[in-house]
Structure to design on (871 residues):
């Protein structure tokens, strides 16, 4: 008997079918242990000893493997073909060795780049030893990230209240977003004008642009005002007898791009499909693990975490065969194309992302939703990579008037042979110049032209665009920051921490993100430098190649980093605020139009405004506090200051006679009733402009909750109120959300009773009793039902007391029992209820693990079978 361990339960079933009855395939569900989230998990004073803890959920998985090994002769570790997969295998070996479960067992490591019968059986026939260089690269990276996070984050918490955390790569990525925002804010638009003309000829009309005027060649800013434009238009309109002065037709060739890497897949899926990096990787994972084809689960693409751009010979042959049969020999270049990686820090590379079989066209598979879209993108890109180049012709026509006072130009690109463009065209970023692919009339030098119409157009230079996920991933890769396989998680962490906001698919830094970046730039400048971060990645590459000892690398890093941390121990909050006031001056204290001091308090004579740090974040306050209580939100500058008037008395409550005020707090405006013994404050709804708040509206707000009436069935109150998620009504524990604040104040008893009855009849929303969207069947171990429910925040998987989140963008119809089991396992790992599968029986014992370990100091080439790193 052979025991095979893979990462995913979905893969386990498929691979067990491929291998037959002599193999028992079990899933580790990813890592079985990790560094505990507490101080001391990595001990620099003890040669960087690392204390690992077994994941609670993983104990049952390890027990299953241990039990299965009792009647097995061989353990085959078949985790993913990258650095992370190698580490998972190493962790398993360490745990099982301590449990003495490997005595007398033959230990083998196998890797396969695709989940197909051929790939899996070939991998089993060609095992290797565990690659300890990859494991050490993982250990070094894990220790680095832990040491930065667990030493830098507490400094942030003490010196910058409201900050969440800092990370080795996360903080550098955040800096990119913040720097771009600063560029946008500092940008000074510059005016320029163009003159477009519509020219007529015997062969047809076409558009042209003014390029020379009175013998001078125009550059972008030659016509920089309305007056310049008027003068240019007068000259153009006065010109006579236009003719063609030259026609140049230049042949061009465009070559196809390489097949996808992790990074280029994320970028193209973002631009063409609107997918986030996380959504792309989740969908690619499903395509890799496979779908049911003819009663057998088959992987549709090769492994999706790679920097490699090449395909193996047999895949290239299959691809070229498919091109020849489908498109004809004219679309097939004489020789197969060979691609090499241009990535600055290529991880342990294997194949590019490609279909496992080129005969499986997107149309033949009948996939749906995200899987259909992403598979088509991967298939077309891989096919196009081996197709003939596109042949184009770029034609440029120059023209002028008889006196040569006005010169115009037009150009157009015509496709003479579409080649790979018949299947795939690489997406362009927003900053890429757009080509004019208009077909121009066949004019010749000397042909007469007429000026049908000239039109001036005003333009302003534009600031650089905010980063999209695609452009940020591209920039990070260019700079060598992090690894493509980690980009999705980095971008998610930045959003989860509230450091950035993704709006209209563009990243905008939040105030707290800019504060954290400014703090790190002032007090830890080295560790947010792009070159330094890229250098650390290169040193990690050397570890994985066996050219650098991982402990030496950690010692070099820690010596300098610990000294930087120590320097902040005497740092006072006043020093921090002085530095932040200075570095964020243009954001927090922008110059005023009247030239007065932007830091002068508007409420008192001698107060100076400064950043203040509170329990819930940062704000701007006066230096004369508590005498002067002026505050305004961080980052709102003069606009907020203009709105931040002194406390305003709106009037008295008609029943109690208590004063009601409109006030400005650090989190914005609110109304207050001077009630004894403690005033009552109520925030102003976002849909109500501050200037619209009068005594009537203020009374409505301070009187909340509103008594709608008593329910006719039980006599209990129905109340209307404002909550975290907006207006609602409440009766006996049942909440019903209302669409507008106005409805909350207007709803009557009858309507409220009807809405409450509808909610109780169909709870549909919320995790305690939603509508069943899909019944997936019984849990394979416990025989308990697993269902997909409709909840308040979207669909989720329900199993006993576990409510597991479904990844964003996942089509409910695509979810099967295997996917649901993974979601449940992930939830259990994060603290959901753990269900222990029934124990499996088996006895026996035999041989010790073989581990390949090269001497630390020696340089050795990377292993032939070395897979790509996940970082």
């Amino acid at each position: 008997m052979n025991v095979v361990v893979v990462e995913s339960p979905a893969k386990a079933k498929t691979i067990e079918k491929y291998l037959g009855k002599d193999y028992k395939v079990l899933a580790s569900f990813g890592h079985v242990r990790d560094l505990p989230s507490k101080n001391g998990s990595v001990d620099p004073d003890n040669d960087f000893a690392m204390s690992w803890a077994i994941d609670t959920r993983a104990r049952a998985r390890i027990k299953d493997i241990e039990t299965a090994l009792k009647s097995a002769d061989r353990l085959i570790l078949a985790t993913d073909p990258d650095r992370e997969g190698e580490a998972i295998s190493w962790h398993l070996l360490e745990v099982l060795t301590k449990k003495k479960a490997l005595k007398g067992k033959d230990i083998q490591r196998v890797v396969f780049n695709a989940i197909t019968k051929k790939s899996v059986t070939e991998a089993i026939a060609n095992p290797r030893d565990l690659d300890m260089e990859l494991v050490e690269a993982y250990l070094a990276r894990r220790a680095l990230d832990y040491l930065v996070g667990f030493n830098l984050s507490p400094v942030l918490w003490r010196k910058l209240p409201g900050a969440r955390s800092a990370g080795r790569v996360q903080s550098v990525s955040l800096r990119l977003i913040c720097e771009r925002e600063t560029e946008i804010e500092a940008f000074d638009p510059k005016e320029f004008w163009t003159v477009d003309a519509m020219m007529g000829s015997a062969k047809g009309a076409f558009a042209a642009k003014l390029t020379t005027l009175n013998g001078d060649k125009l550059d972008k800013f030659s016509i920089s005002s309305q007056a310049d434009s008027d003068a240019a238009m007068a000259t153009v309109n006065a010109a006579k007898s236009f003719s063609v002065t030259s026609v140049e037709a230049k042949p061009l060739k465009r070559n196809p791009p390489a097949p996808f890497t992790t990074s280029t897949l994320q970028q193209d899926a973002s631009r063409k499909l609107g997918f986030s990096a996380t959504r792309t990787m989740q969908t690619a994972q499903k395509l890799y693990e496979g779908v049911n084809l003819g009663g057998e689960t088959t992987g549709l693409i090769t492994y999706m975490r790679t920097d490699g751009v090449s395909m193996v010979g047999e895949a290239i042959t299959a691809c070229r065969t498919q091109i020849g049969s489908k498109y004809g020999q004219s679309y097939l270049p004489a020789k197969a194309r060979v691609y090499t990686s241009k990535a600055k820090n290529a991880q342990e590379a294997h194949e590019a992302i490609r279909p496992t079989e080129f005969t499986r066209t997107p149309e033949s598979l009948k996939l749906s939703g995200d899987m259909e879209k992403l598979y088509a993108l991967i298939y077309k890109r891989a096919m196009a990579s081996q197709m003939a180049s596109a042949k184009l012709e770029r034609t440029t026509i120059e023209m002028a008037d008889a006196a040569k006072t006005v010169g115009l130009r037009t150009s157009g690109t015509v496709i003479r042979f579409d080649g790979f463009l018949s299947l795939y065209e690489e997406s362009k970023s927003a900053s890429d110049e757009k080509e004019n692919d208009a077909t121009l009339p066949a004019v010749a030098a000397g042909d007469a032209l007429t000026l049908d119409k000239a039109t001036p157009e005003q333009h302003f230079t534009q600031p650089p665009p905010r980063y999209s996920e695609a452009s940020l991933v591209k920039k990070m890769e260019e700079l060598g920051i992090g690894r493509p396989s980690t980009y999705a998680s980095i971008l998610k962490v930045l959003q989860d921490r509230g450091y950035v906001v993704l709006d209209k698919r563009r990243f905008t830094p939040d105030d707290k993100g800019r504060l954290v970046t400014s703090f790190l730039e002032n007090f830890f400048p080295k560790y947010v430098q792009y070159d330094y971060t890229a250098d650390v990645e290169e040193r990690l590459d050397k570890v994985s190649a066996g050219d650098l000892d991982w402990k030496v690398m950690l010692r070099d890093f820690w010596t300098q980093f610990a000294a930087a941390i120590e320097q902040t121990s005497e740092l006072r909050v006043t020093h921090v605020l002085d530095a932040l006031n200075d570095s964020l001056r243009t954001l927090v204290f922008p110059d005023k139009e009247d030239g007065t001091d932007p830091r002068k308090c508007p409420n008192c004579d001698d107060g100076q405004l400064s950043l203040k740090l509170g329990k819930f974040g940062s704000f701007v306050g006066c230096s004369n506090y508590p005498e002067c209580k002026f505050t305004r939100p961080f980052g709102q500058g003069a606009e907020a200051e203009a709105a931040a008037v002194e406390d305003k008395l709106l009037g008295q409550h008609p029943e109690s006679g208590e004063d009601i005020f409109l006030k400005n707090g650090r989190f914005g405006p609110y109304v207050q009733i001077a009630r004894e013994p403690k005033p009552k404050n109520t925030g102003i709804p976002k849909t109500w402009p501050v200037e619209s708040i009068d005594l009537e509206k203020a009374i409505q707000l301070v009187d909340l909750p509103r008594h709608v009436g008593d329910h006719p069935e039980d006599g209990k109150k129905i109340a209307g109120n404002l909550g975290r998620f907006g207006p609602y009504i409440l009766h006996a524990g049942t909440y019903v959300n209302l669409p507008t604040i106005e409805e909350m104040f207007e709803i009557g008893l009858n309507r409220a009773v009807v809405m409450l009855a509808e909610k109780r009849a169909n709870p549909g929303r919320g995790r305690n009793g939603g509508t069943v969207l899909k019944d997936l069947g019984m849990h394979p171990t416990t025989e308990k039902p697993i269902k997909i429910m409709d909840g308040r925040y979207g669909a989720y998987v329900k199993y006993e007391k576990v409510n597991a989140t479904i990844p964003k963008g996942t089509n409910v119809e695509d979810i099967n029992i295997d996917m649901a089991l993974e979601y449940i396992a992930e939830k259990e790992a994060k603290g959901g209820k753990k269900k222990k599968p029934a124990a499996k029986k088996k006895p026996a014992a035999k041989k010790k693990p073989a581990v390949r370990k090269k001497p630390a100091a020696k340089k050795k080439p990377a292993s032939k079978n070395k897979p790509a790193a996940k970082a």
